[in-house]
Amino acid sequence: MLRYFLLWWIIVAGAAKSLAQTAGNLPKPTKTQLEWHDMEFYLFMHFGPNTFTDLEWGHGTEKEEVFNPTNLDCEQWCRIAKASGAKGIIITAKHHDGFCLWPSKFSKHTVRESNWREGKGDVLKELSAACKKYELKFGVYISPWDRNHPDYGTEKYNEVFVNMIKELFTSYGPIWELWWDGANGEGPNGKKQVYDWKRFEQTVRQLSPNTVVFSDIGPDVRWCGNENGVAGKTNWNTLDTAGFTRGAGGPPQDTLNTGNVNGKNWIPAECDVSIRPGWFYHKTEDNKVKTPEQLFDLYLKSVGRGANLLLNVPPDGRGLITGYDSAALAGFNRLREMNFSKKLKFDGVSFRKKNRGRFIYKECLSDGKPKTFVRFNHDSGLVRLYMKTGVLINCIVLKEDLKKGQQISGVKIEFTGWGVDSEYRQVKTISTVGRKRILSFPAVNAKYITITLINKGRRSRLSEIEAYLIDEKLVEK
């Protein structure tokens, strides 16, 4: 009998050790990635010759003098960004046409060759300075594809691209985020380039180790798999990248949208979308700017699903953001402030860490402090929120502490209240939480809310629970 008991104990102890090791080995965000998560929302700005030629993808043959933003005002961009609640700006320093918004020494297709400011202009210099003045993060998009450079399609171009990266980081830093896509088309000689991505990454890490690098496969942030600004309802911050490359060789788009539940790398999703149908400015789209309500819906489906929102707002040919776009952005910010500024107060918050045992009263889940949290055990944890009287609620916000990795895999939310004749109960379910999960629904009158966390053998860390009554017209459809 003793032998069987010892065997059982060895099996159980081994399983527990294996489970602990699994939890301990979860991918975790770096300090820089945690700071990136807190950015939530920032602007993309597509700007270049396409702004003046009415194209989306330039051919690389456009004459440099076509670029002439006579009223360029990067401080106006920053004022509008601040008024929208955005925390940074990423600019297309070089798009596929190869035109550089800075006077690069490694190209003859730049602002230096244009007539703008007598060839002495530098968009990156002005925007970098404006971002510092208005306390916004500064980021850069630089396309590896170059439809103008004569060395594209040869080994020489990798050296050119590395030198351009060095120019960006040594002349315009600090650069908070570097945005790469995997675009790889033909150059002037009809050839495609074999990119030396390893060298590109090493160059960035050496020059600026705290810069967040975006691409299909990171290494720090990933594409969400679409250009609609929508993250997956299940959204893991982890991703497997082995065997994949940037561009056409990237992971399937549905995988990019949801991440991998047991992914080996912490590479969270960024949702890019334009405020207009196109990415560059087109006058014919002035009446097609997304409304504040549409932008709010995108916020729920990106930031509200644990991702970040990168909203493109293209300057026009003057070098200014139009009134159509700025009005929509200001309205979007007002909607967020109006609907998320007043949290509904709970009269009590309690939790229990196991399926049995008493509830423990705790305020840290509703104290507004992201650094406080409750850690739940490997099995599911329960949280109860109490209100002395019934309260109308149509939005719940959950925040997971991510320092030790993403661990909550499912949540059941039960609303209990009293109708005219009897008690009633409604149940909502979601999967992942991540940095922030916003769940909106038709309003219910609840006296208390029970939240059950499903952890699948992981120690989850819940940092905050918030409840709101938002405008019913804004509830996610």
Concise overview:
The chain is built from ten helices and 18 strands. By secondary structure, the protein is α/β, with parallel strands linked by helices. The chain has an eight-stranded parallel beta barrel.
- Distance between the ends: 60 Å
Strand arrangement in the largest pleated sheet: 1-2-3-4-5-6-9-10
Number of helices: 10
Strand runs, count: 18
**Largest beta sheet, briefly?**
8 strands, parallel, barrel
The Rg value, from CA coordinates, equals 25 Å
Give your account of this protein's structure.
- The protein is an alpha/beta fold and 477 residues long.
- It is built from ten helices and 18 strands.
- The protein has helices spanning 2-24, 31-37, 50-53, 74-84, 123-133, 155-171, 197-207, 253-258, 292-301, 323-340, and strands at residues 41-45, 88-94, 137-142, 177-179, 212-215, 221-223, 238-239, 265-266, 269-274, 308-312, 348-352, 360-361, 374-375, 381-400, 410-418, 423-430, 437-454, 461-468.
- A hairpin with a 7-residue loop joins strand 11 and strand 12.
- Helix 4 (74-84) packs parallel to helix 10 (323-340) and helix 9 packs across helix 10 (323-340).
- The longest helix is centred in the first third of the chain and has 23 residues, at 2-24.
- It is globular and about 75 Å long.
- Mean pLDDT is 90; it is low at 1-21.
